[in-house]
């Protein structure tokens, strides 16, 4: 039997965006119902216990520029701690040799190092011209959006190793797509959302701190304050809309509301049947957004053995299966944990293997950085968000070639009483929890303003 609920706003998705908007709307005096398909809150934030070891399955890091997230952490009383970074980093070049280094520039030939530094300057200058909230407004947006990032790099430099290393920071590490699959404008947005390309290169900046107990503490605390307004295991299958409001229907609930926020990744918009259908341009926009692919690898050892070798745990290589890895040891633990990432086409290749063979190859890649001790973790786990029904990829959606300049200006426009929002559609903080919170605050304010205007008009 279906239960009917009434509210000012129905929010679909209990991730950081949806819960932030819900919290703001409740503070403003509005009634809210949050419908979440999963049996937990948090979306792409998830802290879980695997064989007695705490792992942050999804997002986890906090950087100094993420002021919206930092303000939320302070408001919720969630403490942070610094990522371990003492000692030297490791880079494996085309020759397969592990080289220790300090600083941000990977050790290569003097010519390649100089070229990497030059390309960073070129990118920083371009990024400074891009408004992360409106990259499509750049004077060369159309041109930059119709050339892949790989092709643009080839136009800028003849040094293949320099190009590979620059591409790593956007393609492998962030968008988790091959550099030929997204545009230069999309790459510039990724960098602009973090303040500069240099910030993406600086691991000590972009991966600065973690939250004690895990970053899922944010949505858990927000949901706790909302209480029974949050309904779990309620996937929405129909969203009816008109000038009079919306009706969201699940298997057991019917929520009648004045406004709706669809706060899920864009690749899941199509899981909902909209009645009437969304406008043509919205359908097209949604089809030009897709998530990347990454395996987040967690390997816990009885001790952080790399520290005894004078290593920070930070490691990079565009030529290794694991393109980047870090010391990810939890606050207060004596065990040591490494986290590594396998993205895009490399992930395709190892997903085609059985689990044991995939694990062997991944651990061998970690051993290329840290030595044979990395081959024998006490606990090993792979986060595979692409197999999650209510995510289907990582870390966030990005446009195909030409999509950002063609559709981006419409991605934040409401459709009647419906708004769409998530970290995938953020400017500052794009694809990060900070962006999700910013979007939640913005949409919460827009809905509150819209409800107030309607109330005045009908008075």
Q: Can you put this structure into words, describing what you see?
A:
This protein has 459 residues and is an alpha/beta fold. The protein has two domains: 3-44 and 216-278 and 415-458, 3-Layer(bba) Sandwich (FAD/NAD(P)-binding domain); 46-104 and 202-213 and 293-394, FAD/NAD(P)-binding domain (3-Layer(bba) Sandwich). Strand 1 (3-12), helix 1 (16-27) and strand 2 (32-35) form a beta-alpha-beta unit. It contains 16 helices and 22 strands. Strands 1, 2, 10, 11, 12, 13, 14 and 22 form an eight-stranded mixed sheet that branches. It has helices at 16-27, 67-76, 110-127, 141-145, 149-156, 160-175, 184-192, 197-201, 203-206, 217-226, 280-287, 305-308, 344-351, 355-370, 403-407, 433-458, and strands at residues 3-12, 32-35, 47-50, 53-56, 61-62, 80-82, 88-92, 98-101, 209-211, 230-231, 238-242, 245-249, 253-262, 273-275, 289-291, 294-301, 311-316, 324-327, 336-343, 379-384, 397-399, 418-420. Its cofactor is FAD. Residues 17-443 form the Amine oxidase domain. Keywords: Oxidoreductase.
Characterize the quaternary organization of these chains.
Answer: single chain
Structural class: alpha/beta
Range of strand content: 15-25%
Average pLDDT taken over every residue:
97
The total beta strand count reads 22
**CATH superfamily descriptor of the largest domain:** FAD/NAD(P)-binding domain
User: Helix count, per DSSP?
Assistant: 16
**What is the name of the CATH class of the largest domain?**
Alpha Beta
- Write down the overall geometry: globular
Cα radius of gyration in angstroms: 22 Å
Low-pLDDT runs of 5+ residues are none
Work out the count of structural domains.
2
CATH topology of the largest domain: FAD/NAD(P)-binding domain
The first-to-last residue Cα distance is 36 Å
CATH architecture of the largest domain: 3-Layer(bba) Sandwich
Query: How would a textbook summarize the main sheet?
Result: 8 strands, mixed
Q: Level of helix content?
A: 25-40%
């Amino acid at each position: 039997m279906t239960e009917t609920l009434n509210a000012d706003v129905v929010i679909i998705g209990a991730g950081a965006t949806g819960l932030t908007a819900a919290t703001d709307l409740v503070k403003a005096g509005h009634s809210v119902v949050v419908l979440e398909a999963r049996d937990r809150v948090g979306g792409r934030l998830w802290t879980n216990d695997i064989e007695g070891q705490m792992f942050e399955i999804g997002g986890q890091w906090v950087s100094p520029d993420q002021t919206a997230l930092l303000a939320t952490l302070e408001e919720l009383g969630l403490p942070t701690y610094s990522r371990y970074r003492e000692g030297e980093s490791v880079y494996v070049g085309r020759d397969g040799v592990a080289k220790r280094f300090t600083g941000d520039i990977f050790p290569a030939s003097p010519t390649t190092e100089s070229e990497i530094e030059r390309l960073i300057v070129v990118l920083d200058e371009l990024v400074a011209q891009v408004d992360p909230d409106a990259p499509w407004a750049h004077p060369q947006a159309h041109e930059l959006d119709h050339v892949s990032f790989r092709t643009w790099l080839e136009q800028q430099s003849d040094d293949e190793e320099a190009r590979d290393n620059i591409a790593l920071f956007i393609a492998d590490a962030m968008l988790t797509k091959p550099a030929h699959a997204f545009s230069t404008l999309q790459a510039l947005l990724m960098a602009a959302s973090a303040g500069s390309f240099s910030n993406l290169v600086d691991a000590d900046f972009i991966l600065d701190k973690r939250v004690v107990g895990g970053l899922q503490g944010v949505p858990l605390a927000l949901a706790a304050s909302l209480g029974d307004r949050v309904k779990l295991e309620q996937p929405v299958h129909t969203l009816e809309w008109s000038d009079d409001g919306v009706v969201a229907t699940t298997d057991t609930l019917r929520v009648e509301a004045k406004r709706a926020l669809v706060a899920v990744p864009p690749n899941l918009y199509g899981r909902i049947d909209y009645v009437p259908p969304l406008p043509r341009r919205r359908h097209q926009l949604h089809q030009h957004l897709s998530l990347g692919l990454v395996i987040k690898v967690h390997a816990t050892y009885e001790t952080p053995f790399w520290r005894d070798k004078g290593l920070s745990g930070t490691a990079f290589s565009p030529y290794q299966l694991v393109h980047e890895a870090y010391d990810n040891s939890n606050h207060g633990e004596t065990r040591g944990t490494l986290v590594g990432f396998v993205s895009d086409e490399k992930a395709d290749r190892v997903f085609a293997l059985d689990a044991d063979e995939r694990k062997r190859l991944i651990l061998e890649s970690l051993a290329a950085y840290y030595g044979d001790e990395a081959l024998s973790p006490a606990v090993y786990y792979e986060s595979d968000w692409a197999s999650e029904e209510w995510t289907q990829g990582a870390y966030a959606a990005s446009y195909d070639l030409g999509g950002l300049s063609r559709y981006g200006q419409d991605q934040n426009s409401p459709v009647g009483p419906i708004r769409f929002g998530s970290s995938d559609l953020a400017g500052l903080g794009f694809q990060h929890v900070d962006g999700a919170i910013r979007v939640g605050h913005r949409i919460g304010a827009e809905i509150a303003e819209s409800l107030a205007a309607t109330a005045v008009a009908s008075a």
